[in-house]
Amino acid sequence: MTVSKKKRLPLKTFVEGLAVLLLCSVAALAADRPNILIILADDLGYGDLSSYGGKDIQTPNVDGIGTRGMRFDNFYANCPVCSPTRASLLSGRYPAMAGVPGVIRTHATNNWGYLRQDARLLPLLLKKEGYHSALVGKWHLGLKEENHPLSRGFDFFHGFLGDMMDDYYNHRRHGNNYMRKGRETIDPKGHATDLFSDWAVEYIHSRKGKKAPFCLYLAYNAPHTPIQPPKEWIEKVAKREPGINNKRAKLVALIEHMDHGIGKVLEALDKTAQAENTLVIFTSDNGGQINVGANNGPLKAGKGTVYEGGIKVPTLISWPGKIAPGSGSQRVSLTMDILPTLLEALSAASDEPFDGVSFLGELLGKKRSEAKREVYFIRREGGTAYGGKTIEALRWGKWKLLQNSPFQPLELYNLETDPLESRNLAGKERGVFRDLSARLRRELQRYGTVPWQKP
User: Fold this and answer.
1) What does 308-349 look like in DSSP terms, one character per residue?
2) 72 — alpha (psi -120 to 50), left (phi > 0) or beta?
3) What sign does the CA torsion over 316, 320, 326, 331 have?
4) Are 41 and 282 in contact (CB under 8 A)?
5) Under DSSP, is residue 174 helix (H, G, I), strand (E, B) or coil?
6) 238-244 long-range CB contacts below 8 Å, 24 or more apart?
7) Angle between helices 246-271 and 60-68 (to 10 degrees)
8) For 275-287, what is the mean pLDDT?
9) CA 290 to CA 46: how far, in whole Å?
10) Is pLDDT at 60 greater than 70 in this prediction?
11) Helix (H) or strand (E) holding 402
12) Model confidence at 3: pLDDT above 80
């Protein structure tokens, strides 16, 4: 009996085939580990992008993120002011559960948060997945060493350690210089928006050809006060928009100047051949400040309030080959949902007690039926208007219960029939009012378990 012998592949053919398999495996791995670019604007109103209905503003670069990906119509910042939303972004938790129910400030007597030390933040969680993480721009989560960005997981920091700047050109706050490169104090020249854009571009170029994927958190000061765009940008807006008042022209110019910088950052991704494998998220930390000319669309009120204009924000996300271009979402999502979404996108497990919920399925077009979700908002503040107390809101389905002043009664609105919050139903819908009030009280009790001042 003759036994047939199996043909052996020539060694060269075998090696070439193995190389192809390895390259395919590496490509598949890279596709599953995209670079991540999170762009956070400061005080950008819901209507202050042309893609969100702004008639006197041109924001082609930010709008392009939505054209290439998904636009969210019901995305909320976790708080109507800065620090708490930033804490939620990085921790995946409600602000109070992250230890930051209010604004972290340079003066201890007017400070309303301390980022909890046991929270593992976004850069630390991504480090486990092989990421190099960078923060360029505004930090606003603490000045002490234990809460320095490099102490909280970032590999690279080039930006402003404090809160707002009193001047976009000299980068001081109460006379203090909080500009840093790593832990080194620096004193760069130029408009803060240009500096942050240029530093982000430099970072992206530095990652070209690197094995590890990157996560770049680019946090602008713009368009926060002072409304101080470069002069030529005001002139450009005034010429294009006849009849626009000076206050509005300055704010539009500051936003368009930021959009121009974002364009340079996105262009850097293209130039370094990294755009096709980069997930880009654009959002704002809260709504626009009305008294400086912000446009929150038809929404009620603005920054600092728990009405829709203070917490609903424009949000656009792109991911080539994953998110359908020009798609949209009506899902109610919050800033704290971003971290769980990123981890699910990487198939990364975490035992962190997130309050946020992944919306990856929404991004990928896999619509899932979800239970009606309770979402809460809180802001603690000082001064005579707040007295160190909190304002809160709870959205549950179509209902929204809120207390926009600690010294005023709770209000109840049906957002389905009254999205502009014009008819207070607290006196009519007593059953709903009592139910939501009890839910809100229980949530406030939960927040009381987390200290928000440094021990």
Assistant:
1) HHHHB--EEEE-TTTSPTTEEE---EEGGGHHHHHHHHTT--
2) beta
3) negative
4) yes
5) coil
6) 240/58, 241/56, 244/56
7) 50
8) 98
9) 11
10) yes
11) strand 399-403
12) no
Structure-block tokens of residue 380: 């603690």
Q: Which residues contact 248 (CB under 8 A, 6 or more apart)?
A: 56, 293
Instruction: From 390, 391, 400, 392, select the one nearest 435 (Cα to Cα).
Output: 400
CB of 260 within 8 A of CB of 237? Answer: no
d(CA 303, CA 306): 8
CA-to-CA separations, 23 to 16, 18, 276, 417, in angstroms, rounded: 11, 9, 17, 55
DSSP E strand boundaries for 77-148: 132-138
**Residue 153 region by backbone torsions, left for phi larger than 0, else alpha for psi between -120 and 50, else beta:** left
Least confident of 21-25, 56-60, 368-372: 21-25
Cα–Cα distance for residue pair 164/354, rounded to 1 Å: 28
Bigger pLDDT: 141 or 7?
A: 141
**Domains of the chain from N-terminus onward:** 32-363 (3.40.720.10), 374-447 (3.30.1120.10)
140 Rama class: left (phi>0) / alpha (psi -120 to 50) / beta: left
Per-residue model confidence as pLDDT tens digits over 193-228: 999 999 999 999 999 999 999 999 999 999 999 999
pTM passes above 0.85: yes
Taking 70 as the threshold, does the pLDDT of residue 18 lie above it?
no
For 144-177, the pLDDT digits (tens) are 999 999 999 999 999 999 999 999 999 999 999 9
DSSP 45-95: -TT-SGGGT-SS---HHHHHHHHHSEEESSEE-SSSSHHHHHHHHHHSS-G
What is the pairing mode between strands 214-219 and 132-138?
parallel
- The pLDDT of residue 388 is above 60: yes
Cα–Cα distance, 354 to 334 (Å, whole number): 12
Q: What is the pLDDT of residue 316?
A: 98
The dihedral formed by the CA atoms of 341, 342, 344 and 346, expressed in degrees to the nearest 10: 160
Enter the tokens of residue 369.
């039926």
Q: How confident is the model over 293-346, as pLDDT tens digits?
A: 999 999 999 999 999 999 999 999 999 999 999 999 999 999 999 999 999 999
Spatial neighbors of 192 by CB under 8 A, at least 6 apart, are 160, 165, 168, 169, 171, 221, 222
